[in-house]
Automatic annotation (TrEMBL):
Residues 219-563 form the Glycosyl hydrolase family 13 catalytic domain. It comes from Pipistrellus kuhlii (Kuhl's pipistrelle). One of its GO terms (cellular component) is cytosol. Glycogen-branching enzyme participates in the glycogen biosynthetic process along with glycogenin and glycogen synthase. Generates alpha-1,6-glucosidic branches from alpha-1,4-linked glucose chains, to increase solubility of the glycogen polymer. The keyword Glycosyltransferase applies. Belongs to the glycosyl hydrolase 13 family. GlgB subfamily. This is 1,4-alpha-glucan-branching enzyme. Monomer. It catalyses: Transfers a segment of a (1->4)-alpha-D-glucan chain to a primary hydroxy group in a similar glucan chain. The active site is at 352 (nucleophile), 407 (proton donor). Keywords: Glycogen biosynthesis, Glycosyltransferase, Phosphoprotein, Transferase.
Amino acid sequence: MAAPAPAPGSEAALAAALADVPELARLLEIDPYLKPFAQDFQRRYKRFNQTLDNIGENEGGIDKFSRGYESFGIHKCADGGIYCKEWAPGAEGVFLTGDFNDWNPFSYPFKKLEYGKWELYIPPKQDKSLIPHGSKLKVLIKSKSGEILYRISPWAKYVAREGDNVNYDWIHWDPEYTYKFKHSRPKKPRGVRIYESHVGISSHEGKVASYKHFTCNILPRIKDLGYNCIQLMAIMEHAYYASFGYQITSFFAASSRYGTPEELKELVDTAHSMGITVLLDVVHSHASKNSEDGLNMFDGTDSCYFHSGPRGNHDLWDSRLFAYSSWEVLRFLLSNIRWWLEEYGFDGFRFDGITSMLYHHHGMGQGFSGDYHEYFGLQVDEDALIYLMLANHLIHMLYPDSITIAEDVSGMPALCSPISQGGCGFDYRLAMAIPDKWIKLLKEFKDEDWNMGDIVHTLTNRRYLEKCIAYAESHDQALVGDKTLAFWLMDAEMYTNMSVLTPFTPVIDRGIQLHKMIRLITHALGGEGYLNFMGNEFGHPEWLDFPRKGNNESYHYARRQFHLTDDELLRYKFLNNFDRDMNKLEERFGWLSAPQAYVSEKHEANKVIAFERADLLFIFNFHPSKSYTDYRVGTKSLGKYPFCCQFKIVLDSDEAEYGGHQRLDHGTDFFSEAFQHNGLPHSLLVYIPSRVALILQNVDLPH
């Protein structure tokens, strides 16, 4: 008779969990408050390993299992024939039709296999390719109710829309010329600086921009700005452009509205030649409800790739939810991950919307107070959690230098802890509270009422050893209905008072100075990585709104006006210059990869914040009107001499090239003395003008 399971939360339960999860002791050492939930980590880890073992026993291992795209879909055989395979467990019959057979619906029937799979082999033709490159295809499904359904293969590599056609066509992609990668993948950056990008809006013209345009015109800008990583949004094919790429219809197809698959490969390869890592915004949290050109109802049932009934629908997003415990859904999603890594050379992923995956309530109506009971128990969807563990395991097994980022608003503990500790295995999580804090301050508080301690708390409130990507704003704030930082700061005056030929107005002056300070303190204090959405670095003057019925299908706001930074008569260049030099200084000193900063000052009356990170001294004076002469700031830095260090300014937001007022003399040296201040053994006296951010370097230290 089996021994009874230890009582939850007991010492015996803790001991059993520690025995089963190799490095759980390290996780509990980092955060002892997780001890009552040790059995949850044990259960998750055991389920992860059981799934891996099952894949090994039944499929020959996850390496083989994740190559589903090599057999599913349509393939040309070595003998010139065609092999097709689909999973359609609810179908009565499956057929291939298209241009190649004059759309005869039933001339090429699939053979039924076990477990809901179907296959078709078409022998080669002597005189020509049976299904030429560019042919239009459909999978015809005969449902068990007798209904005839025309579908696109879930494994389709290329789909396109012609003319006024509402739905996409499945195009057989088999070109004579395929792009050959010329450059190796960059090494994993020590401090990741991400440029969040959307190919379609990357032109200033009112149209959908192309992969070619992005490669030739935007990549050089990104390189010049000092970003070492791109996060590409809206690449996986989505029928509805205004969904921003979050209603995926074809998971293996690169969006044809920007160009061909080969042109996307060239984009990634060119980025690699510049030393830029490329991440894909992957959407495995849900899928479009479209059936004619999406996954929904593929085999005539609502349960093929998704949960049946209400559990399979996301009421807020009006989309379908994957059944992550399904064997073939696991094959599909893990193969999808591998496809983008292998076929297109992506270096990792930002996983979108995983809060919806992690919980049965999908995060809807949840405040997430931080109580640990919110992250464990029956509300957690462990099927989805195990899938995310498998995905991270696969990605880092194939390419150890890959980067994975979790978009989670809940703050689930151990999301970015190693799987060996019982964690989910992500490299980073997005610090989603930071942009909300800046918007709240700009919206609801006068400058003189900003709370320095509250700002510092928001920027530093993250789990120890779980890395965060900090950002002051992302695409969310740029969308219509919200405002970017620049718009909150300067609003309508951006249209009339950004010329250098006119004097600074109080609004524009305040906006330019605070824009720089907010971004720098977020960059330096907010995490172990940094993210910026394209165009926000220079204070893009308009919101983002995709063509839709509500705006008469206009492209006017679905663009980025990069040309504004090239106009010497406009002040946008100042913000662009500051963003560039901020990034390049991080590249030089590496504060993102340095330990958490020590904040020595957050003075409420003076509105001053000071901290040290990567042997640099950061000083921010947020006061709207007060400048301080001989302001004492503490430092722990040592120099050549026992009681003295020499400091120089290495970044000054008040410089003329950044739209500042040039109130500081960069020829001035600052010397520390053995005078304790704010708990630090040394201090120095500095001049800090109002609304200025300074970075000082201890020149006695090697860099």
